[in-house]
Write a structure and sequence with these properties.
There is one protein chain. By secondary structure, this protein is of the alpha/beta class. The chain has 2 domains: about 210 residues, Isopropylmalate Dehydrogenase; about 140 residues, Isopropylmalate Dehydrogenase (3-Layer(aba) Sandwich), CATH 3.40.718. The chain contains 14 helices and 14 strands. A 10-stranded mixed sheet has the order 2-1-3-12-11-4-5-10-8-9, with helices on both faces. Strand 1, helix 1 and strand 2 form a beta-alpha-beta unit. Helix 8 packs across helix 9. The longest helix is centred in the N-terminal third of the chain and has 19 residues. The protein is globular and about 60 Å long. It binds nicotinamide-adenine-dinucleotide.
Amino acid sequence: MSNLKQVVVIDGEGIGPEVIGEARRVLRWFVAEKHLGIETRDALYGVEAFRRTGKVVPDQTMTALRTADAILFGATGGPAYDALPAEAKREGNLLRMRKSLDLFANLRPIVAIPALAEASSLRSRVLEGVDFVILRELSSGLYFGEPRGIETLPNGERRGVNTHAYTSSEIRRVARFGFELARTRRRRLCSVDKANVMEAGQLWRQEVQALHDAEFADVELSHMLVDNCAMQLVRAPAQFDVLLTDNMFGDILSDAAAMAAGSLGMLPSASLGPVGPDGRRPALYEPVHGSAPDIAGKGVANPLGAILSLALALRLTLGEPGAADRLERAVRDALGTGVRTRDIMHEGGRLVGTRAMGDAVLAALEQTA
Ligand code: NAD
């Protein structure tokens, strides 16, 4: 066995190949210039995989995912994906991949970079000091609950059903992750639920509170209803440190929170599973955004969410925190030169495409000590 860390890279659909193309160039730079002990392998997924193998997630990809130290993923979805046979999509898709690797903890850091204040829809004074993490439960809840489906009722009406269900152990393991994370930050955790109308939300609140009282009294815990949280994220996002959410609430709230970072295209994410007996922890890194069919193939997508996802992989899985810091600094330095993709463009910015933004990050990397 090689001692090199194994990174499996998956482009996916839409803007996936464009943004991952830039993250791949950055990773290659670190391997070539800084001699990081990392080996990369490309794997097929989605529309392209189906065309070649008849499967959305081919067996070879699934094996590669299980043995990889880290997975770097672009995005999935869009018209070509939607047109695939329903059966093929049910058998293998991103949600299934996350589930089969038991990726329960999805970290979405939100940082307001001062250079992007003009790109944000929020006022500069609201953005001051914004630095928080949304911790989204990723392996259960409404996106996985049974029963689910569309049925025809005896009266001929159709009914769509999904089930929002959480067990106490599912809540506790992500809450534990959140409290431990808060201990490495400003020791504040805000747990989000809809306990006023949902039983699953009541259980969520009770379990988070009980774990806090038993083991994490040194962390300041608050509870917030999800509708209020949506408002607070645009009113005063700097109040948050760790924001703990279920699967669906985290999905929705992070898109709103993206405005504090200037654009959805800026947000990275890490999805982590439990630590195995061999000490390894399954890990998938991907930008928060989707396949953006409206801009796919035009070379205008912002690759920084994908590049910052690589920085998270370097820090959390690949044992290279120095390289991660350097890469995050290079992203800030690149933005400091004024280059802007369309989504973060503002008066005074210099409009560039996906590739040129990648070039700017590589140039900044060359210049950092
Ligand atoms: P989206 O995130 O793809 O796009 C939302 C908006 O943000 C679009 O206007 C898009 O142009 C813009 N945008 C997103 N990323 C950008 C980037 N890097 N640079 C510049 N602009 C960017 O969400 P959507 O349009 O609601 O969904 C499109 C498809 O993506 C759907 O099929 C959905 O299921 C899928 N999706 C996939 C993931 C994933 O792969 N993890 C996540 C969300 C949505």
